[in-house]
């Protein structure tokens, strides 16, 4: 099966290797010609192994059997307005919830997924698989592509769910707590449980977020488990902050603020967090000038 992956970040490269292991022909559409050239010349490396994949910034001549869209939310609309074959399945892998409505405008039956694997891109053509997890995905119908994914087994561990909306909200519940707070504290995930003040702040943010997402307060146990299991990891938002890249703040906590207001639910904690992170980003820009 020919799979086109749009996005050369950690999740995109990780997905490429996993699918190569399953015998798929993988095509990676990158944002830059430099990254594509490096991948084509040196191959894609993960944990000491090198995989032969094709990469390009131009996918107009490709005819894939399915497309995986693994870009940040703030790049999504730009990507969707480019040439992507609409007659094949599209699988969206983004943080937050804002991409759902956008995806449904561009594709009649989009698939959505979450990735719980740990992955860090260490170079243009290299990714480290730092922790085993799952690819959980779902949508309106199961296609040949969906059936292929569910047969992948280890290490991809892809699972179909009939309630992907619940899984997206569950992931958002974690991201809304971990991502912005690790930026503010500039620390690994585990600090949010190890430090009393940080843990108190994390729980307050969780309580409010759970109300907006209509998740039970018992979900805090799940959030704690995720933080504990990834305690040595650094959140994607913190990595973006440190590298001077845009943050997915608007699609995570910003989305929660808008959703809370529309549902007449108090969102003071999320509003405060958005403002605090934005101020920190502004200070970062000022310091770098």
Question: How would you characterize this protein structure?
Answer:
It is a single chain. The chain is built from twelve helices and twelve strands. The chain has 289 residues and is α/β, with parallel strands linked by helices. The protein has two domains: 2-162, Rossmann fold (3-Layer(aba) Sandwich); 166-282, N-(1-d-carboxylethyl)-l-norvaline Dehydrogenase, domain 2. A hairpin with a 2-residue loop joins strand 9 and strand 10 (126-131). Helix 6 runs antiparallel to helix 8 and helix 6 (164-185) crosses helix 11. The longest helix is centred in the middle third of the chain and has 22 residues, at 164-185.
Please summarize what this structure is.
With 289 residues, the chain is of the alpha/beta class. The protein is 49% helix and 17% strand.
Keyword list:
single chain, 289 residues, alpha/beta, Rossmann fold, N-(1-d-carboxylethyl)-l-norvaline Dehydrogenase, domain 2, globular
Give the secondary structure arrangement, pairings included.
Blueprint lengths: L1 E5 L3 H12 L3 E5 L3 H10 L1 E3 L2 E3 L2 E3 L9 E4 L3 H8 L9 E3 L5 H9 L4 E5 L2 E6 L2 E6 L3 E4 L5 H7 L7 E3 L3 H22 L5 H4 L1 H18 L6 H10 L6 H7 L6 H14 L5 H21 L1
Parallel strand pairs: 1-2, 1-6, 2-5, 3-10, 6-7, 7-8, 11-12
Antiparallel strand pairs: 3-4, 8-11, 9-10
